[in-house]
Amino acid sequence: MGTPEFAVPALDALRRAGHDIVGVFTQPDKPRDRGKKIKFTPVKEYAVEHGLEVFQPLSLKKGEDGAKSFELIKRLCPDVIVVAAYGRILPREILDLPRFGCVNIHASLLPRWRGASPINFCIINGDKETGVTIQQMAEGIDTGDMLLWESCAIGDKMTASELHDELKIIGAKLIVQFAENPEEFIKNKTPQDHSLATYAPLITKEMKEIDWNKSPVEVFNFIRGMSGEAFTFIDNKRLKVFASEVVESAGGAEMVLDILSIVYGDDNLLKLTEVQLEGKNKMNADEFLRGYGNK
After folding, report:
1. pLDDT at residue 286, rounded to an integer
2. pTM summary value
3. Coil/strand/helix, residue 168
């Protein structure tokens, strides 16, 4: 069960390892991009290409569609359900259905950053390390016991998309390790310390706006964590910010030096280095300033 690109390497690794994949569940097809054309999810694209049977239920919850999903999964009779960024909550009756239960490939070192956006939030908060946890799923959000995990260093300039690409490979490797001997990993599972839990909620459009009251390092980390989705406004036009850098400044007053350079009271300067103004192409700071002027 998975939907975005993050889940594809795990599906590929399990197939290549020779496991019998009895079904692939993914979100329903939706209009995407500017043309609003119906596009398959990345997981569906892979499954169709490799002849795997695909199911796209509207719901897994109790009710008519959920009951159909339950009966379908029961008929497929899986030993285990592997979940990777599926985007649906699994009810208890499905969690309990497979012989080895349901296991989730979660992109953090649990219990830190439970929730929908762990990759973004670990960078936004300046973490130096994260990883992937294979967890036995429970009814709470990412509260289940841990089966195996692997850490990954976060580079000082690493973006969320770059970290995503590292973690999806780690997740694929770990789920194959689990599938080779699920009984052993389940027998030796490790409960989470719930007192250490932090939460990474689903990121909304409003959450992507830059808060200029934060420090230069905090804004720098926010821009990295949003990976091309951070924005601010300039002359009432939306300005997407793809990249920035923190450098020392000669001054110390809180003032705007030019459109793309902001001095903070701690003598650090945040420079926006790659931006895109509403209705324009993405460009570096020099190109932008030449076209926009130092207003």
Report:
1. 80
2. 0.91
3. helix
